[in-house]
Amino acid sequence: MKYSDLNIEVGKSFNIFYLVIYSSVVFIVINSVFYTLKSHIIFFQLFANAVLLLTTLYLIYITQKHSTNKSGFYYYTSIGFSFVFYGLFIITLDTVFVYPKEVVNISSKMLFVCGYSLLAIGVTKWIRYNENRQDELSYQANTDELTGILNRRSFTKYIEHAFKNAKIRSEPFSLIIIDIDFFKDINDTYGHMVGDEILKSLSQLMESSFRTTDKVCRWGGEEFAILLPSTGMNNANNVAEKIRKKVENSSHQVKEKSISYTISLGVSESLAIDETIDKIINRADKALYKAKDSGRNCVKAIRT
Question: How do residues 147-173 score in pLDDT, each as one tens digit?
């Protein structure tokens, strides 16, 4: 059992809020029996302490209500606020009943130390949980769910960044759009699960074949795109041809069967006259269709 699961079970079976209320009632009854009331009560001090108690009790209720949170934040903070509540409770009762001062000081300080220590742990867990959650959300927003590589939306941002750099530095970049040949036939013959496995294996093959500065994404369906920063058309063609041969010479094992497939690739290069990235994408897309019309399993490029 994971520790986070333990927190969930404890939060469901152990209600700290009700424990605080019941124990407070019992504590008041005990005090009424064993301690005498003060002859002079400072009602403003009593009112101020009562407001703090109610506020802390509300915080206990809120954190207890959400104590199933896997970060452990609510679990630790609900207990931490409970210690703070008891410390405030003793100080509040001290305004009504006659207590030994040393007992009040020591007990309240110990409760505050324990309470704020647990609150510090809870807040730390909350910060870490949110950091991890932000990373997780960012990953989900920027990557393709099936293949784990960049999705089209996040990939487009990299193209826009490369486009701006190309304008500033007069340094071209290239774009490759890839399509798996006859992918529908693979799905129809072997099933969509096998098709998904091929998409994932191709993604891994491409990620391991390019520079860290290059960006690989799932463009849509069985199409992929590759951004090659600081790369001209000739080098981009060579890169595209290498990946084409690599895929052609590889195979995918499914139930003792070896499935081979090929890809078609369209290449374009950024030009100084390009006003938007759409021009570059359209040329790569047209080059891809040119490759398909030329019998597939080949690389075609369009310069203008």
Answer: 999 999 999 999 999 999 998 888 899
